[in-house]
Amino acid sequence: MKQRVAFIGLGIMGRPMARNLLRAGYPLTVHNRSRQAVDELVSAGAAAASSPAEASAAADVIITMLPDSPQVAEVVGGEDGVLSGAPRGALLIDMSTISPVTSRELSERAAASGRSMLDAPVSGGDVGARDGTLSIMVGGAKEDFDRALPIFEVLGQTIVHVGAAGAGQVVKACNQIVVALTIEAVSEALVLASKAGVDPALMLEAISGGLAGNRVMEVRRRNFLEHDFTPGFKVDLHHKDLGIALASAREFGVSLPVTALVDEFLQALRAQGRGGDDHSALLTVLEGLASHSISGAAAGVPGAAAAAGS
Hints:
Helix content is 54%, strand content 12%. By secondary structure, it is of the alpha/beta class.
């Protein structure tokens, strides 16, 4: 018999993940601040709960997928939170991207209350969430990882137990560094090719089969070429994630100079009111610096002056 799952947080990532669990036959209770996502999943067979505590009350496993550390801390440990409702022996899996320090603290609180906790952030964006092909990096006890593995196998394709509590969040910070710097590098290449008179689409095709080939060029190709920055992963969230990486680097005495620069580019977008755009909108910062749009639009790219001065 499959474990009963509570899923809290039905945003861009959480909603398709919860739907995949339903399709796999898991009994599912859901909770979210906005009602639309809840209603959609209820129509697909889930039960609704009015609070994290209520969602957790009959659950064997509780999954949270929330924006940042404060929200996870409140939903897990706050009044009417998961720890006030979940039965002893329940397993909490936080799949948000938050501070490793917060993850370790919440894991300790869970253990002290007779529950277990894993930090299991993911990579793969909205496409990976929808297709069940996420990469999942898991911190926590090995026996808890083994218990959660059948659920992870519904949600993802690459599933690695990377260490003790908090280790999953450290690895996710590393992942976000690589993704952000890759988006920035691809953006530089697109702007250079285009301004030099080479078709950006052909440039991507030419380099995709060599060492420069990467998933960013595959998954975000259309976003770049069509300037469609409908969010799959928001600038605000990636800026938050790089903040976690930079804070961790300071804690451990590591220098991340290029990460800091790309973080400033993301902040420039946020200052322009574009924090809700997809993170591939980093391209427009590079376009602004070059006064050139790869889309063939007028050379005066909106926000160019702000970007250049950031």
